[in-house]
Amino acid sequence: MLSTELEVCSSFATGPRQYDGTLYEFRTYYLKPSKMNEFLENTKKNIHLRTAHSELVGYWSVEFGGRMNKVFHIWKYDNFAHRTEVRKALAKDKEWQEQYLIPNLALIDKQESEITYLVPWCKPEKPPKEVHVLWWNESADSRAAGRHQSHEDPRVVAAVRESVNFLESQQNMLLIPMSFSPLK
């Protein structure tokens, strides 16, 4: 995990606010509690079958934050047509089906998918604005210390007071990157 002064390293937003068709799919799998390790082992062993079809941005297990036994991953697509092509190719890929999909489907309790776009002023690096945000911290304790420190900053307090009226929901999760995740 990385730590910077701002600690913001990636920012994504829902909605069509960009100049090209690139989109990111946020996928969350809720796993049966006794099957988490089996799922992760099979994913590590066979992720190459999936990444042969499209770019994996990152893959994490959720340490805490909401429901347990959860993995979160982000896939990049050039546009919706590209995503459709990838989904069709995966449906025809026998090796993917037999070695990954079929064995893992029985381990998954629930799936969620959200299509997101980068806001025009950012790249998957250190943007000045945020909507969906991935924060990197050296540890959970450094995250807690940073949050406590930011609550003492009058600029942060003012920004929160101004923006809270626009907040529909907020979810916090501690994500642990998998060994094969490009984004750590």
Automatic annotation (TrEMBL):
Check the record and name the Gene3D superfamilies matching this protein.
3.30.70.100
Any Pfam family hit: NIPSNAP
Signal sequence annotation: none
Q: Name one GO cellular component term.
A: mitochondrion
- Gene Ontology terms: biological process: mitophagy
- Ranges for the NIPSNAP domain? 24-123, 130-182
| Alphabetical list of InterPro entries matching this protein | Dimeric_a/b-barrel, NIPSNAP, NipSnap_domain
PANTHER family to which the protein is assigned, alphabetical: NIPSNAP-RELATED (PTHR21017), PROTEIN NIPSNAP HOMOLOG 3B (PTHR21017:SF19)
Record family assignment:
Belongs to the NipSnap family.
Q: What is this protein called?
A: Nipsnap homolog 3B
Q: Gene symbol?
A: NIPSNAP3B
